[in-house]
Structures are given as structure tokens and as C-alpha cells.
Write a structure and sequence with these properties.
With 130 residues, the chain is of the alpha/beta class. It is built from four helices and seven strands; from the N terminus they run βββαββαβαβα.
């Protein structure tokens, strides 16, 4: 799987990164892995700064639809998400964020340290979707 995942069950934190081409299948496999591990309620930091996003807008929307369906089906809570992305990938990340439409804190960053700080605040209930 092109998405590398570290799950800290004790801290309720997922750190993921991608450093090659990132397809819709890769992201859906990552999400299914989180479900299998019981990590959907955890705070998530997804670092896509080294990734080449190869998804269309429709594919990004399908990921958002998957997340929305997960929430609507009552499969459990979904924790806050901080996406770290380069300027070129930020447009793709923005489409995903818009499509996700789930009721959880979600922000896109260019700086990992800022994303981590925001995620810590969001986990305490202070994050807002933006």
C-alpha cells in the first residue's frame, strides 16, 4: 500500500504519509485499514507532501462520499483530520475536504508542525472545519 500508516491506539492518533502516486484505490484501502483497526474515531494526520495525487475530481468526491456514508450509516464517530499538502496538491485536498461533508474538524496545511498543533487542539474539541 503506497500509504504508510502508524496507529497509536494509546494516544488515539493515526499518522499516515504517501510518497508516490496516490490513487483512489490507495485512499480507500487506507480507510478500510483504519476501520479494521478501529481507528476511525482517532485524530488523523495525513502527510501528502511527497505524493503525486493522480485522482480526478470525481474520484476525490467518491472518497468524500465513502466517508459521509460511513458516518451516515452510524458505523461510529470519525476523528479530526489534518491534511498536509503541497501547493499543487492543495486543490485536490480541497476537493476532498469539500466532498467529505462529514461533521468533523478538517483542515488543510502546508506545514506539518502547524497541522500537528491544530490536530492536538481539535482532539480537545477546539478544532473547526475550515
Amino acid at each position: 500500500m503506497p500509504v504508510k500508516v502508524y496507529i497509536d491506539h494509546g494516544a488515539g492518533l493515526v499518522e499516515a504519509s504517501a510518497d508516490e502516486s496516490l490513487s483512489v484505490e490507495d485512499v480507500l484501502a487506507y480507510l478500510e485499514h483504519l476501520v479494521e483497526q478501529g481507528a476511525m474515531p482517532y485524530s488523523k494526520l495525513f502527510d501528502a507532501t511527497a505524493a503525486k495525487v493522480t485522482m480526478s475530481v470525481d474520484e476525490l468526491r467518491s472518497i468524500g462520499a465513502w466517508v459521509r456514508k460511513y458516518a451516515i450509516d452510524g458505523r461510529g464517530p470519525i476523528g479530526p483530520l489534518a491534511i498536509v499538502s503541497t501547493a499543487g496538491n492543495q486543490i485536490d485536498a480541497a476537493y476532498f475536504a469539500d466532498a467529505a461533508g462529514s461533521n468533523r474538524p478538517l483542515r488543510i496545511f502546508r506545514d506539518r508542525a502547524e497541522a500537528t498543533a491544530w490536530l492536538e487542539q481539535a482532539a480537545k474539541g477546539g478544532g473547526r472545519r475550515r
